[in-house]
Amino acid sequence: MSDAIRAVILGIIEGVTEFLPVSSTGHLLLAERFFHLGEGAFWDSFTVLIQLGAILAIVGLYFRKLWDVAIGLFTGDAYARRFVIGVLVAFLPAVIVGLVAGKYIKLMLFNPWVVCFTLIVGGAILLWVDRLELKPREYEATKFPLLMYLYIGIAQCVAMIPGVSRSGASIVAAMLLGADKRAAAEFSFFLAIPTMIGAFAYDFYKNRSEMTMDHMNIVTIGFVVSFITAIIVVKTFLTYVTRHGFMLFAWWRVIVGTLGLIALALGH
Questions:
Q1: Which of 129, 106, 123, 112 minimizes the C-alpha distance to 20?
Q2: How far, CA to CA in Å, does 64 sit from each of 38, 79, 140?
Q3: Which residue range(s) make up the domain with 87?
Q4: pLDDT tens for residues 116-125?
Q5: How far apart are CA 140 and CA 12, in angstroms?
Q6: pLDDT (tens digit, 9 = 90+) per residue, 232-250?
Q7: Nearest to 258 by CA among 25, 266, 246
Q8: How far apart are CA 129 and CA 167, in angstroms?
Q9: Quick one: which of 156, 125, 138, 161 has its CA closest to 247?
Q10: Structural domain count, the chain
């Protein structure tokens, strides 16, 4: 299989799973293990770098809202300033945990057994939350209370365990704290922007000397594919979740995790 085809497949996986509560990191690790996609140091960086494509899809889809927030920062809009502070507050716990324990987490927990177990557990949690008779109090992701932003950020730290899902942890926390499904999903998108840009910048800086022109061409392919795929997925996801909830994604996690454990037990 050519590197270009690998880049397209991994770009699709990234674009489809980044904003769904199913764990993009978990799916990429399983694709590497069972289908031999993206093995090696370059491909480890590749899967981080193409996340920026998915993030730019969010910036494009929510450009008007993000632009209004940016303008509000300079015109004294209290809601805009509080939202930006809220995103930073939610982002900080992941930065702290990443700096303190990031290497240990990657060394000890980045393996397919952990991914499969966390996919199943996360699916069970999504099923539980989906069946709760929650009474939302917050319907606008840009106007959550500051303390709520902090709690969501703390919950997001659990997603450093592969298979948990960053968006899933954020969405579940937001819903339990009083957000409706759409607002919870949208804030998980907004929180992804600084989180993924930070990961992109760090990985690119760390590996910049090893990036050849061929590598950059492959990254560009994955970047574009993840961007296009993410736009389609996010639009569909919001509409679906608002009407039907998270049961489909919960069962997807359980099925993928179970099949993965069976394959691992059989020695694959």
A1: 123
A2: 36, 15, 15
A3: 3-265
A4: 999 999 999 9
A5: 30
A6: 999 899 899 988 999 999 9
A7: 266
A8: 14
A9: 125
A10: 1
